[in-house]
Amino acid sequence: METQRELPPTEINFSCNWNKKLDCNYFTTIRQYNLSKYEVGRRYVIKLKNVPISVCKIIEMYTTTVRDMSELLTRLDAGMSKEDMRVMLNRMYHGLIEDKTLFMVLLLQKEFYLESNPSIHRNEKDVTTVKA
User: Fold this and answer.
1) Cα angle at 83 between 80 and 85, to 5 degrees?
2) What is the widest separation between alpha-carbon atoms in the chain?
3) What is the helix, strand, coil percentage profile of the chain, to 5?
4) Owning domain of residue 114
5) Local structure of 82: helix, strand or coil
6) pLDDT for 71-99, tens place per residue?
7) Number of domains in the chain
Protein backbone atom coordinates (compact mmCIF):
# COMPACT_ATOMS: atom_id res chain seq x y z
CA MET A 1 0.00 0.00 0.00
CA GLU A 2 1.41 3.37 -1.02
CA THR A 3 1.46 6.10 1.61
CA GLN A 4 0.76 9.69 0.67
CA ARG A 5 3.78 11.89 1.32
CA GLU A 6 3.17 15.13 3.15
CA LEU A 7 4.01 18.21 1.13
CA PRO A 8 6.19 20.87 2.74
CA PRO A 9 4.24 23.93 3.87
CA THR A 10 3.77 26.69 1.33
CA GLU A 11 2.92 30.28 2.21
CA ILE A 12 -0.19 32.40 2.45
CA ASN A 13 0.69 36.06 2.87
CA PHE A 14 -1.65 38.71 4.29
CA SER A 15 -1.15 42.42 3.75
CA CYS A 16 -3.47 43.22 6.64
CA ASN A 17 -4.91 41.38 9.64
CA TRP A 18 -8.47 41.92 8.39
CA ASN A 19 -11.03 41.84 11.21
CA LYS A 20 -8.21 40.56 13.52
CA LYS A 21 -8.79 37.09 12.08
CA LEU A 22 -5.13 36.05 12.33
CA ASP A 23 -5.51 36.25 16.13
CA CYS A 24 -8.03 33.39 16.04
CA ASN A 25 -7.43 29.64 16.13
CA TYR A 26 -9.83 29.22 13.17
CA PHE A 27 -10.23 31.78 10.39
CA THR A 28 -11.20 32.15 6.75
CA THR A 29 -9.46 33.69 3.81
CA ILE A 30 -10.84 34.44 0.37
CA ARG A 31 -8.33 33.68 -2.39
CA GLN A 32 -8.31 33.68 -6.15
CA TYR A 33 -9.23 30.23 -7.48
CA ASN A 34 -6.16 27.98 -7.59
CA LEU A 35 -6.67 24.24 -7.02
CA SER A 36 -2.97 23.52 -7.45
CA LYS A 37 -2.04 25.75 -4.50
CA TYR A 38 -4.85 25.17 -2.01
CA GLU A 39 -5.70 21.70 -0.73
CA VAL A 40 -7.61 20.41 2.31
CA GLY A 41 -5.19 18.91 4.83
CA ARG A 42 -2.16 20.82 3.55
CA ARG A 43 -0.11 23.02 5.89
CA TYR A 44 0.72 26.66 5.18
CA VAL A 45 3.07 29.15 6.79
CA ILE A 46 0.92 32.19 7.46
CA LYS A 47 2.71 35.49 6.93
CA LEU A 48 1.64 39.01 7.81
CA LYS A 49 3.45 41.54 5.63
CA ASN A 50 5.97 38.81 4.71
CA VAL A 51 6.74 37.97 8.38
CA PRO A 52 5.96 34.34 9.33
CA ILE A 53 3.54 34.26 12.27
CA SER A 54 1.98 30.79 12.38
CA VAL A 55 1.47 27.43 10.70
CA CYS A 56 -2.07 26.48 9.76
CA LYS A 57 -3.85 23.70 7.96
CA ILE A 58 -6.80 23.99 5.57
CA ILE A 59 -9.64 22.00 7.10
CA GLU A 60 -12.36 22.98 4.63
CA MET A 61 -12.74 24.96 1.43
CA TYR A 62 -15.33 25.81 -1.18
CA THR A 63 -15.62 27.78 -4.39
CA THR A 64 -17.80 30.86 -4.81
CA THR A 65 -18.19 33.94 -6.95
CA VAL A 66 -18.22 37.57 -5.87
CA ARG A 67 -21.95 37.67 -6.63
CA ASP A 68 -22.62 34.65 -4.38
CA MET A 69 -20.55 35.75 -1.37
CA SER A 70 -22.79 36.40 1.62
CA GLU A 71 -22.73 39.36 3.98
CA LEU A 72 -21.97 36.86 6.73
CA LEU A 73 -18.82 35.69 4.94
CA THR A 74 -17.49 39.12 3.99
CA ARG A 75 -18.16 40.68 7.40
CA LEU A 76 -16.55 37.80 9.33
CA ASP A 77 -13.63 37.42 6.92
CA ALA A 78 -12.67 41.07 6.46
CA GLY A 79 -15.03 43.16 8.58
CA MET A 80 -16.65 44.76 5.54
CA SER A 81 -19.86 44.62 3.55
CA LYS A 82 -20.27 42.46 0.46
CA GLU A 83 -20.13 45.57 -1.75
CA ASP A 84 -16.97 46.85 -0.05
CA MET A 85 -15.42 43.39 -0.53
CA ARG A 86 -16.24 43.50 -4.25
CA VAL A 87 -14.59 46.94 -4.54
CA MET A 88 -11.52 45.78 -2.59
CA LEU A 89 -11.12 42.61 -4.68
CA ASN A 90 -11.38 44.70 -7.85
CA ARG A 91 -8.64 46.99 -6.55
CA MET A 92 -6.42 44.06 -5.48
CA TYR A 93 -6.79 42.29 -8.82
CA HIS A 94 -6.58 45.45 -10.97
CA GLY A 95 -10.18 45.53 -12.18
CA LEU A 96 -10.18 41.96 -13.48
CA ILE A 97 -12.97 40.83 -11.16
CA GLU A 98 -16.43 40.12 -12.54
CA ASP A 99 -19.48 38.79 -10.71
CA LYS A 100 -18.70 35.31 -12.08
CA THR A 101 -14.97 35.26 -11.18
CA LEU A 102 -14.20 32.20 -9.05
CA PHE A 103 -12.73 32.48 -5.58
CA MET A 104 -11.92 29.87 -2.97
CA VAL A 105 -12.96 30.32 0.64
CA LEU A 106 -10.49 28.52 2.88
CA LEU A 107 -11.14 27.62 6.52
CA LEU A 108 -7.83 27.35 8.32
CA GLN A 109 -6.99 25.86 11.70
CA LYS A 110 -3.97 27.25 13.50
CA GLU A 111 -1.53 24.51 14.55
CA PHE A 112 1.11 26.68 16.19
CA TYR A 113 2.48 30.21 16.37
CA LEU A 114 5.95 31.21 15.31
CA GLU A 115 7.87 33.49 17.66
CA SER A 116 8.96 35.74 14.78
CA ASN A 117 6.02 38.09 15.34
CA PRO A 118 5.44 38.78 19.06
CA SER A 119 2.91 41.54 18.31
CA ILE A 120 0.21 39.01 17.38
CA HIS A 121 -2.23 38.37 20.23
CA ARG A 122 -1.92 34.77 21.33
CA ASN A 123 -4.45 32.46 22.90
CA GLU A 124 -1.86 30.23 24.58
CA LYS A 125 -4.61 27.96 25.93
CA ASP A 126 -5.18 26.11 22.66
CA VAL A 127 -2.18 26.80 20.44
CA THR A 128 1.52 26.35 21.18
CA THR A 129 4.37 28.68 20.23
CA VAL A 130 7.58 27.50 18.57
CA LYS A 131 10.72 29.26 17.40
CA ALA A 132 10.81 30.12 13.71
Assistant:
1) 50
2) 50
3) 20, 35, 45
4) 10-118
5) helix
6) 999 999 999 999 999 999 888 888 777 77
7) 1
